[in-house]
Structure formats: C-alpha cells, structure tokens
Amino acid sequence: DIQMTQSPSTLSASVGDRVTITCRASQNINNWLAWYQQKPGKAPKLLIYRASSLESGVPSRFSGSGSGREFTLTISSLQPDDSATYYCQQYDDYSSFGQGTKLEIK
Amino acid sequence: VQLVQSGAEVKKPGASVKVSCKASGYTFTRYYIHWVRQAPGQGLEWMGIINPSGGSTSYPQQFQDRVTMTRDTSTSTVYVELSSLRSEDTAVYYCARDRGDIEVVGAAYDALDIWGQGTLVTVSS
Q1: CA distance A100 to chain B (A)
Q2: Record: contact A34-B45, CB cut-off 8 A
C-alpha cells in the first residue's frame, strides 16, 4: 500500500500570506496526485489533479507542483474563504489519501 | 452533473448496510465511481471503485472481505454494501466520480471531480 504523509497537520496564517502544504508518498506515484479542499459538513472539492493541473473553476491562487514522491499545494495569497482542511490523494496504485492539513486564518 | 445519495442509516453491530448513489447529467457508463468514507473528525479513506459499464470492481485489502459494490445501469445508480458492521464503521460515506472518461483513459484511475452529498451511517447497539 502507498502511504501518503502531509505536513503540517495544522497551519495558521494571515490573509494575504503565501501558504504551502507538503505531501510525501511512500513510493514514486508518477504525478498521479490530486489535492482537495473540504469545509465542515461538506464533501471534498477537487482543486488540483495530475499534480499540477488546476481544476476548472478553481481560483488561480491555488497551484500544485512536485514529482515522483514529493508534492506541494501552494496558495499564493490566502483569502478568508480558504479556511478548510486540505487532503492529497494518490491514484497511481489503487488510491489513498493523506491525513489532512487544517488551515486556519489568523 | 450530480450524484445524489440515499439517506442516513442507523444499524446494529453485525448488520449490513447498503447505500445508493444516483448519477445524472452525464453518460453513466463512461466514468468510474469511487466510494470514500470519513469517520467523525477523521480523514478520508478510500473504499474501492466500480466500473459502471461492466460492473468490475476493485477493493483495497482492508475492505476485501466486507464490501460489495454493484450498479444498475437502468437507473444510473451504484451501490455500496458493507457487512458485519462494527462501531468503527460509523462514518459519512461518499460516492465520487472519476474524472477520466473510460473510453479515453481505459483502466487508469483519475482524480475525483464530482462528489455525492454523503450518507451518514451510524453503527450502535
């Protein structure tokens, strides 16, 4: 099984900050990686697929990068609406999720 | 394009539960459906995938013995059934569409672009 590890687990930042979340896979996942945003009581929302492709309708302040085993989600200028939990997901071999990163706005 | 799931369920330990997910707004047989669950206050856990066209399924080892995914093409509905329920199965269960068109990507998985609203399953004696 491929294990996905996110860091940090929690993050507090101010509006306008640049924020980065990291996701590491236990083996090479060939860029088959997605990022999701989840708000309380809601289903996850797809932000990024194939490591760096922005899903239609997602604000351009969100971006993804990385390859092989290490990936990042960056929010270039944090907005109040970005307060949420973020998950990475690999789909190279079956599928699995990271444990999540809770992002709070100061 | 949407996925609409059945309502909340309360089950006793040892029982089974079957949750439905009805698709609309796209060609049902061209996109895989995944099931993902989330225990209260916890992260997301992948439960498996079904090909709505042929009905083939794939489950991770931790669910192999207890989960069954099926589909009904006449109603564009997929189902997940979990047996031998225990308290740890209390969770919100989501269906989600794979964004890859099966006729284009074949057997490869992709990210999950459309999600159902979730179904709360509570297991309690």
Answers
A1: 6
A2: no
